[in-house]
Amino acid sequence: MVVAIHQPDYISWLGYYYKMSRSDVFVYLDDCQFSNDNMHHWNRLKTPQGSCRVKIPVEQHLGDPIDRVRTRDELGWKEKHLRTIEMNYARARYFSDFYPCFRDLLLTKYDNLAEQNIAINTEIARRFGFTMKLLRSSDMPLTSVREERVLDIVAYVGGDVYLSGHGAKAYQVEEHFAERNVKLVYTDYVPIAYHQLWPKAGFVPCMSVLDYIFNCGFDWDGVEKAVEAAKQKGG
Fold it and tell me: How many domains, in total, are found in the chain?
């Protein structure tokens, strides 16, 4: 059984959902430490000038886990994000198919940042047609950290394959996984090109998944085929 683990990021990129699609169990690492650098509370959208960053103002203290970080909704950031999205994607072919749902999800009141991101990511995964089981690390009685935490989560859910992102190569040791009878593999996602608005700005890779959805709909078969073609071309 393939297990993947990732923090609940905000409107993440296609590579995030590709990893989800390749797993039997996907665990939201919602109780790991919040980071300003990681995309827990920001992402990128395409505009006529290129990409722009949308960022959620949060209230947090050093060391807080994502599920204890409060979004500062009183500042009106949700309305600002929605206006930015509408201004730049209203002309996209599939905008009206998902924007009303996304708007309702975003305008819902959540207890914390993790709750919000999980709600959005879960709905997007459902619409892509993914069937993996979704769990949260905060529901698991585990206290380990870093590589040991990953191994404990995989064991807890009964997995024997761990699908990892490449960023974790800095601290993961394949032999440690083998000792626990877990096969360590890394995602083979390759960034793909697809139709975008504002062609004069050129194709901008690694945008938020919203860029793909509004332009191409929930065509996951198209993603799979484009990734395979990109891998073959690169090889």
Answer: 1
CA 196 – CA 88 distance, rounded (Å) = 11
pLDDT, tens digit, 9 for 90 and up, residues 26-61: 999 999 999 988 999 999 999 999 999 999 999 998
- Range of 22's domain? 2-234
Residue showing tokens 């709909």: 217
Confidence at 192, pLDDT banded by 50, 70, 90: very high
CB atoms within 10 A of CB 214: 27
C-alpha distances (whole Å) from 154 to each of 26, 65, 84 are 10, 20, 39
- In angstroms, the Cα distances linking 177 to 90, 105, 145, 172, 182 are 47, 38, 15, 9, 5
Residues 73, 54, 202, CA angle at the centre, nearest 5°?
160
How far apart are alpha carbons 219 and 160 in whole angstroms? Answer: 30
pTM over 0.90: yes
Q: Per DSSP, what are the bridge partners of residue 43?
A: 54
Say what the pLDDT of residue 201 is: 85
Cα-Cα-Cα-Cα dihedral sign, residues 96, 105, 206, 200: positive
Q: Which whole-number Å values give the CA distances from 184 to 73, 153, 179, in the listed order? A: 40, 14, 11
Name the helix (H) or strand (E) containing 161: strand 161-164
Task: Break the chain down into helix, strand, coil percent, rounded to 5.
Answer: 45, 15, 35
- Which tokens belong to 178? 């083998």
Residue identified by tokens 């069937």 is 131
